[in-house]
Amino acid sequence: MKVLFDKIDALKQIKPLTKHEQIVNAIISKIESKELKKGDRLPSINNMVSQVGFARKTIVKAYEDLKGKGIVESKNFKGYYIANVNTKTKLRVALVLFAFHSFQEDFYNTFREELGKRYIINVFFHHNNIDVFKDIMTRIAGRYGMYVVAPIQIPEVGMLLQNIPHNKLLIIDRYIAMPNMYSYITQEFENSTYNQLKKLLPEIKKYKKFILFFKKDSDYPIGILNAFNKFIKDFNIDAKVEKRYKKDSIVKNTLYFFISDGYLWEILRDIKLKNYEVGKDIGLLAHNDNAIKEIIFGGITTISIDFKKMASESANYLKTGESIRRIIPSQLIQRNSV
Question: What is the 3-state secondary structure (H, E, C) of the chain?
Answer without folding.
Answer: CHHHHHHHHHHCCCCCCCHHHHHHHHHHHHHHCCCCCCCCECCCHHHHHHHHCCCHHHHHHHHHHHHHCCCEEECCCCCEEECCCCCCCCEEEEEEECCCCHHHHHHHHHHHHHHCCCEEEEEEECCCCHHHHHHHHHHHCCCCCEEEECCCCCHHHHHHHCCCCHHHEEEEEECCCCCCCCEEEEECCHHHHHHHHHHCHHHHCCCCEEEEECCCCCCCCHHHHHHHHHHHHHCCCCEEEECCCCCCCCCCCEEEEECCHHHHHHHHHHHHHHCCCECCCEEEEEECCCHHHHHHHHCCEEEECCHHHHHHHHHHHHHHCCCCEEEECCEEECCCCC
